[in-house]
Amino acid sequence: MTANIGFIVPNDAMHEVAKDALAAHRDIRIRVGLMTEAGPIANDLIEEGAEIIIARAETARTLKDSRIAAPIVDVPITISDLIRAVESMKPHGTKIGVVCFASMIYDLDWLGQLLGVELRKYLITHSDEAANAVRAARDDGNDGIIGGGVSVMRALEANIAASLIPMGREAILLAAQQARQIQSAMVQVRERNILINTIFDNAYEGIVTTDAEGNITSFNLAAEKLTGIRRASAIGAKIDQVWPALQLDASIRIDQREADQIIDMNGTRLVCGKAPIVFDDRPIGAIATFQETARIEKMEVAIRKKTYAQGHVAHFTFDQIIGASEAITDAIEVAKDYAKSPFSVLILGETGTGKEAFAQSIHNASRHADGPFVAINCAALPAQILESELFGYVGGAFTGASREGKPGLFEVAHNGTVFLDEIGEMDYANQGRLLRFLQEKTIRRLGSERNIPVNVRIVAATNQNLDELVAQKTFREDLFYRLNVLSLTLPPLRERRGDVARFVDVFLARYAKEQQRQLSIEAAAIRSLEAFAWPGNVRQLQNVIARLVITAKQQRIGRAAIESMMKAGRRNPDESRKVRRIKDALERSGGKYADAAALLGVDRSTLWRWLKNYRIEEK
Hints:
By secondary structure, the protein is of the alpha/beta class. It has 6 domains: 5-75 and 171-183, Rossmann fold (3-Layer(aba) Sandwich), CATH 3.40.50; 91-165, PrpR receptor domain-like (Rossmann fold); 203-295, PAS domain (Beta-Lactamase, 2-Layer Sandwich); 318-489, P-loop containing nucleotide triphosphate hydrolases (Rossmann fold, 3-Layer(aba) Sandwich); 493-568, Helicase, Ruva Protein, domain 3; 573-613, Arc Repressor Mutant, subunit A (Orthogonal Bundle). It has a 5-stranded antiparallel beta sheet. A 5-stranded parallel beta sheet has the order 15-18-21-14-22. Helix 14 (326-339) crosses helix 15 (355-364).
């Protein structure tokens, strides 16, 4: 077992006492040596692993003066030790001189009265003063002296009766306890230093600290890598000599924090922050932290991707698009070509033709596939909310805004794709903001003056005729040309009737499994489905199959059930009257949705929902 504590005693008698007292402390190594031999003995103990040295007063003082590389613990003088020393001197007389260091003395007057003797103290500050103190005690008429080893030695040399103040068991155990407390504190300091050094050396940032005189006290591995300055040569050197451009010593003089400074170091741009290290209201040093601007940009990308873009994932791929008709296979081949380019894509098609499925497939086949896929329905939100959703806002930008602010969907989609569904329903003001983004590739949150660069690809979709909207001045012509770089028109289901059976098989299997039913469909029933016009396209067919699975009374679905379902799905007279009212309001307002909504007594979002539910196309 390694001896972590060394104990130096002056003679063999004390060695036996200490050995007996410390029998249970196997990690304390005891050595015998006079005060003059203490230095070499202590160094030997340290080389053998001792971290703390225990010694009596004279020896301890000598070790401290010689600056031994370990803490020194004094063995205390207990009352019982003094009593034993006094009792041993009583046969020589009642006048006893006490020659020792001040740290060894208790209330001698009280102790003398208790023991029936007169105790006179002769204090020394160094062992060299012991001879003079002994002579002074003799000249004062003392019958003898008590003291430490050196004092007793000098007394005996002068033929004066002397007795050594013993080192009792209690004193030895007290010294051992104090040594263990120091050892525990040293372990904690080492652990803290290891922790701090580990943090420093594993930090992504370069970290440099100095003391109050500008001497470098720490220089981590990242600092060495970023600056090209060797850490071994930097530690202890003056910061203004090692790295004068940093001007870290100025932080101590002016006692001021500086942040986000750009420093050029051997052609590498670093973002640097500096601050004084303050203790008891005075600067005792300074710290600088810095990192590459390029790394900050990469971290920003990673944060956007992992924090903001969670859940924004495209699930569809081209392999999952159902259909083998010429119309759909041609559309897939064109979309695959578009996916390889960085340009915006405009997907046209009736409601329910699968525009978002194509948008997701284009994203997953593009160079942006590893980035987020963020979709938003432009018709679902009022203009002001749509603006904040797209571009984000800073805290307190408007009433009800979050205090922390919120990133917009363009920001969330950095290095990915933004799918703008029903782009034809976007209001004119937001069309202008979208155009500016497409031109500048930067966004500015509401309430902010900071432009944020964003790299996204735009895929837009609509079931409206944008040429007509441009002619009616409800859709910006310049935005139309920006979006319509690559145009893809999806065929309606009525133009790909051969794919109806494939959709039926897929939807029937999916919903039957969900409902835990075993169902099939007759060929005649499928022919009836193929003959239907499907104004709602694939989405309408999907809804029909879902209702059939839920309501089917027999295991095999026949033609009659299909025709009954399709008849029940036709609009009732009340719905037809409502559709006529909506169309009339649109005609009277000249196609202006806000005016039409006012005529109907509803808000604009309700009108948009009606138009979508009843599949009304404004002419």
